[in-house]
Amino acid sequence: MLPVQIGRFQGDEHKEHCRRVAMLAFRSALSLHLGEEIKEGLVTAAGLHHDPVYFGADPPGDVAGRIMDRLILPDRPRDDEPGLAAETLDACNAFDEAVEFAAFEGLSPSEAIHSFYDESLAQFDPRVAEALRRATSPAGHIPRFEDLPVIPKIASALMRTSDEKTSPAQLAHIVAGDPVLCGRLIGAANSARYGSRHTIQRVNDAALRVGVPVARKILLSSCIGRLFASKPLQEIWAHAQTVAAAAFELARKTGPGGESAWLAGLLHDIGRLVLMGSTQESMVNLQEWLEGGFPLVYAETLTWGTDHACVGAQLLGSWGIPEEIVAAVADHHTPERGVTMASIVFLAEQWSAGAKREGLCLDLRKMAAYRNVGFTPGVLQEIDAESELFALAG
Predict the structure, then answer these.
(1) Which residues contact 5 (CB under 8 A, 6 or more apart)?
(2) pTM here?
(3) I need a labelling partner for 383 at 20 to 30 A (CA). Which of 91, 148, 247, 270 fits?
(4) What is the mean pLDDT of the chain?
């Protein structure tokens, strides 16, 4: 637990920013060998550096106040421990702002961090620059490419079909050797939503009853869901199915493309499956960043130097997934880059529960996504959570 108190007068965004700066300062201070009192004062000052009390004529006389005094008044010396701590706070603040405002430049957190290293880090005391670089340099290693999951053969075959040109008999032929998939489709066809007095027993008849578009989604979802079968991944998979259904609903408002949007939504977090196969040390490091208030994509970048969107796109590319889907997955946290389907997936994820902590500048990115797709902000309220696809999810 960081010894920090967040200012009472700050807005939520400032509080979140200050909390992250406090974590960065804490990690940087470990490399600077500052005295314990100075180190604690630095972390406290970082958590309060937007609090108006520190911007008066006479900053408080405690350690955190002395550090803020050096930060606010540039003519104060920075060649002693309070000055070095102030320089550290200045650097950590600039680092977090560079990542936070990356949305204005269409940059991922990784790109923003490298830009900060190249263009801004040199302006700080070399000792502080080195400490911050150590604190923010990724130590985790992504699993080797050859160890990554392989797309199930049936899923690959299903992706080569289409709603318009595929018959129920063709779907039945593709899944004929997989009794679990057959059972899933037959079970859906016999559910209360589709059921009648006559029980379905054949895959071909099940596809006829629910329709090829729904049958394809049931089968594809069942295939890909096997990759998320372990308990730690089940929450991610449930989220993916919800995002897929919401993306389909949104895409239908723009015309053709609903099927691709659904698949992009289903696969958008596939990179998390890869990253969660990393070492225990990497996962502990990720959790520490998350507990420090860093959104998921930011925390992943600090842990591995990349995020699940980029890793997922690489994996899908290796599977031969259509480029349209790969691009949507790659940019689903950066809709400001202008990829239409990525914007749809982004909005679908914002609509779904639990998406708040995945990125920064969400309001700005929402507006960019709305512009890309031609939507108005009220469109998310029009998603029908009672639709057929939501009923089938899970």
Answers:
(1) 44, 47, 48
(2) 0.89
(3) 270
(4) 87
